[in-house]
Fold these 2 entries.
Entry 1:
Amino acid sequence: MAEILKSFTFEDLPTRPPITGRPKISDDFQQTVALLSGWDGVTRRLIRVSPSGVIRVGSARAVGVINVVATIDGYVVTCNDCPTSEVMLRAFPDNTGRVFLNIAAAAALNTGYPLFTGEWINLSVNNMNSLQLYIEKDTDKVAVIYTE
């Protein structure tokens, strides 16, 4: 049997008793764990299925909403450090200006993806801190819903 040198955990897969030290693991168990997990480029994630065994393809559970409010014209903000798998951003329906969204680069007027009044976009990202927003008008708002 192989010995686990560096154990990793899944927050949504508790083990009883907790893994400590350098436990031994059989080849068949190692293959099972490999089949139950996926790699998104940053972290391992469990692959979920329905009770009938169908792989669940869809959005992760939403865990929070952040409203970003501009305090000046040309308001620029980087979203907080928050691990996530997906985000949905929506420019508020009563905005008077545009919002520009950029990923891992600075957003500015006419730099990034434009969101006009009431428009929204859904993105897969590993952390919200990769999102940069430029809000054109003072008091305009963006709602950000993020998943686990």
Entry 2:
Amino acid sequence: MVKCLIIHNKHEGCYDFQFYEDESSKMRLTSITINPPKIFMFDSREQAQDFFEEYINDVDVLDIRCKKGEEVVHIDYCTCGIIELDEEENPVLFYNKKNQIFLMETGPQVFLPPQELKNDVKNLNLTNRLIRKCKTLGREQRKRYIELGKYCEECQTKNDSGSDEEAVDSDNENDDKK
């Protein structure tokens, strides 16, 4: 079973700011380089650690300004790779201008429900919240609302029949004028 991963992201071409500018359309085009990561899998931390240390030594390019004979003395703003260590002083991250290399251990896996199910749950929770906030009316209030509803229906019926008669009357008047 895979216990450790080494992931190497290469950034060759990512920092190349050459572009083509079209004067007629006033448009600037820049090329994009996409470099897929290399992934190495290991069954033990020791195997991964050994490989990681050898691999970063192969990838790292020392800045000429940092090399003092056989010794390496880093100066400010050099382009040498940077190594980050874990609690046990083992390298777990290397990066420079063109590379990022991570040593990662597998951990707990996260299993998420599908988005549709998440949306359904949110809708149900919202419905439940609204139902809890909704208050029930007392018997007396219900009777009043029913009477109000009946009164509104009667008014609407009168308006509908009255507007029909008015429409017929106005049509007859228009016919007489012709």
